[in-house]
Every structure is written in C-alpha cells, then in structure tokens.
Write a structure and sequence with these properties.
This protein has about 160 residues and is an all-alpha fold. The chain has one domain. Helices cover about 65% and strands about 0% of the residues. Helix 2 packs antiparallel against helix 3 and helix 3 packs antiparallel against helix 4.
C-alpha cells in the first residue's frame, strides 16, 4: 500500500576600506576517495531510512494513527537531515550532477513522507493514499539516484 545562498559581497572597488565586505570561503573539494568515505555514513542512513519505512508500512495496520504519523514525521526529519549532509558534501565536481539528483529525490521523498504524516493525523485517507503513491515513485527515484552516485565512487574503506 504505502512504499516508500549563495552569499554576495559588496566591497569597495577603489581599494579603500573593506567595511561592509562579506568574504566567503569555500571548503576545498574532497578527493574521490575522500568523498566515498564521507558519503558512506550518509548511504548507511539512507538504507536505514528505507528499512524503517518498510517496517512502518508493514506494521501500519497494527499501529495507531498517532503513532504512524509520528513514525512518518521522524522519517521526514531523518530524510531532510540526510539531504542536508549531502548538501554539505564537497565532492569532486564530476559528482555534482549525481549528488544534485539524489538531493532532489530525497527532498521529494521527505515532502511526501511529511504529507503522509499530515494526512494520517488529519484522518484523510485519500490524501494519505495519494502521498503514499507519490512516495512509491520517489523511493524508486531515490534508489536510482543513489545508485548513480555509488557507481562513481569507490567502495569506502574502514
């Protein structure tokens, strides 16, 4: 049934005072091996979220609406946190497109997890069903995007 700023600086052009200037620094990009190591715990969390989503769905009929909504809300928070960790990952430029797709897929999935939780809390079976159907598609998109990232990374060591 259910599935699953950029900162802009304004400074003086005449070489005068730098008051009002915003200086930003960008973290250096990781090597491919470094990106693989940094991605490994994120991947583990994505797998755990998927597993826990499956468990929530499998036990939904035996779970109160309040408890089910809480589980979906918790999954939402975890998915959003994983997306934020991906956003902070300074991987090699060649991974940018694949990581962007994964972040987008995760954001879509988190949005639908939240929609399921909201619908269950509101006792809106139709909205829950629709959000769950979107979540099925999002889950497939997350798996595909995750696989695309992982094809470009060596296995993490350690």
């Amino acid at each position: 049934m259910l599935a699953v700023a950029a900162l802009a600086g304004c400074g003086d052009d005449d070489g005068g005072s730098s008051a009002g200037t915003v200086t930003t620094t960008t973290a250096p990009r990781l090597t491919v091996a470094g990106a693989a190591a940094a991605y490994a715990p994120i991947r583990a969390e994505l797998v755990a979220i998927g597993r826990d989503l499956g468990s929530a769905v499998a036990n939904a009929a035996r779970t109160t609406d309040a408890k089910l909504a809480d589980r979906f809300s918790a999954l939402t928070v975890r998915a959003e946190a994983a997306a934020a960790r991906l956003e902070a990952l300074t991987a090699p430029a060649r991974l940018d497109t694949a990581l962007d797709r994964l972040r987008t897929a995760l954001a879509d999935g988190a949005r639908d997890l939240r929609a399921v939780a909201t619908a269950v809390r509101s006792d809106d079976a139709q909205a829950a069903r629709e959000a769950a159907q979107r979540l099925v598609g999002d889950s497939a998109g997350i798996r595909q995007a995750r696989a695309a990232v992982e094809r470009q990374l060596p296995p993490a060591r350690g």
